[in-house]
């Protein structure tokens, strides 16, 4: 039985690293000519100093506070005969890609977005009473942000399973969102199957459909919002996000933040922390869901719909290593080399096994902008 948890979150606020420094006011001088002479002498001394600098020495540049911009995401299509190889290559180097020539129509994505926006038009009481409260499902709000009277506050999110069900009978229709969620889930499981085949370990999606769990995470942002994602982080295998319009997204990597701009009507695929553990560290990962890069000024509304293919709460996470068959096995069931190969052939595990539920709760409630939550499980 899943553990019952409180949805109280621990918020961590980052200090302002770039405080404004005011220049000292000018000092009045009773000798105007003295000020002119002093400035002229100082300029001459500075000019002489710069001329004495070595030619290879340059003055330091101002540090930029913006995140690094990565090249466009690599583009993959299921029709490509080398899809598995390209998927593994992109996953190992970057941890994200954009998928084209998929079978999800843009009309369905737009209808799902319209229904998602209607969720934020509900009053606060409706948001809290109409949706299931079974963590992480349901409505969630950042209580540190002041709630506006019309209920359209910042830091709000909704999390649904594939049914996109409500607790009470309302006039709210989520038919398109439900169909959109199921279509993304089907595509996500297909990608996991391809990735498992490329990695060389067994994947039993067809034999055990309960092995995975899909969550549709919907959040709304306004221009000028802070960078912390609403709803917190949640571990996942892969994430899928349909690119409805030209929009830049920020991805949090272990090396820092990068921004990407997928093609319109493509699906951005990100590999999560569970995929990295399963691959025994071979795959790169993106921490959390992609965040829309919101500029200042225009107060337009924006909703993000992220489908996370993740695990049931009662799962255990451990590296999935390919089986190595010994060349000199006798065929006897007791012959260890027949099943696992020699010690030299076996791959060393880089992660300890851990409870997914404990890990998910910790990641959801703590801020991991700088520290990798997987570090505590590394061997």
Automatic annotation (TrEMBL):
Origin superkingdom: Eukaryota
Species lineage: Eukaryota, Viridiplantae, Streptophyta, Embryophyta, Tracheophyta
Biased composition (Acidic residues): 140-151, 325-337
PANTHER family membership: 2-OXOGLUTARATE (2OG) AND FE(II)-DEPENDENT OXYGENASE SUPERFAMILY PROTEIN (PTHR34945)
Protein name: Gibberellin 2-beta-dioxygenase 1-like
Ranges for region Disordered: 17-36, 55-78, 135-160, 325-344
